[in-house]
Amino acid sequence: MIRLANLNDLGSLVEIENRCFDTDRISRRNFRHLLTKANAATLLDERDGKALGYAMLLFNTGTSLARLYSIAVAPEHKGSGVGRRLAEACERLVLERDCVSLRLEIRRDNTASLRLFEKLGYRYLATVPDYYEDHADALRFEKHLAPHLQPELVRVPYYQQTLDFTCGPASLMMAMQALDPELNLDRKLELRIWRESTTVFMTSGHGGCGPYGLALSAFHRGFEVAVHLNDDGTLFSHSVRDPEKKVVMQLVQEDFVEELSQLPVKIVYGTLNAADLQAEMEQGGIPVVLISSYRIYQEKFPHWVVVTGYDERYFYVHDPYVDNGAGKTLTDCVNMPILKKDFQRMARYGKTGQKAVLILKRKPSKRRASRT
Question: What pTM did the predictor assign?
Fold first, then answer.
């Protein structure tokens, strides 16, 4: 019988863990946290009161993505179908939680698990070098659990921001390289774009990047760019109490807007709905969108992401921020499925609901006039 595990199962879970793994073990303390406080679910397969194996799922707050964090079968029950039953039960639970994608990592040398998940329809995503404590590589897999939802994904590369305040440059870099594969993404470019486009909107620490500065950075690197905002007010100023900082922010934004007004960059005041975003993508555009991080991280700060695709019900998003402290990996941040209605709710920031979207496209090539 497969059921949800609880604190009474701690001993059984730890015993299976220690018998199955020599490294990367989940400790008793971590099991307790995952059972009581984390956005997680642990399934236990037992027979006659004896635990045969377990599977642990992590759910991504604000998205429709789940991750199979760990699965283990007691050595004497390997090959008896326990792993398959647990995996299929995980898929059912994930769908019940309104998630449509399940991802996992498997050791490259774990041939039994590789065979199992390939038979279950999981597709290979990437190799992650030096993933485990003993430096073994991991293979990353994903399965779309709702087969009628086939994402039309733009081929957007992934780049992880390296600093807390560079989500804007990282998102812009991903969009630019999708349009120009020869563009090299590295920390120098990340910091260069941050210097070019930063403004001051935090009460302390480094400033982040606004849409006007990011648009200038994209244009000067040869891309066609349009800026969509819901109004022409000073962005992010409501969270700053210092009057002098508010003045600085206003002046920086005015300077950006004045420079943009001299360039063929469209600034459109109005909102883009889900249909508008999809239409822009159908015409070759890649949206870089300002969101409130609260729905994903339960912290209120402005955050940039890049939209990588869409389907009937979902937008897919690369989030450049990997919350390692919460146990997240790149797997959790690449092509995250978010219901369109939820994405529209999170695509705003602050009490005034400020909205900002950049649409990047390739610049039209200039054709030389033919001679007659």
Answer: 0.77
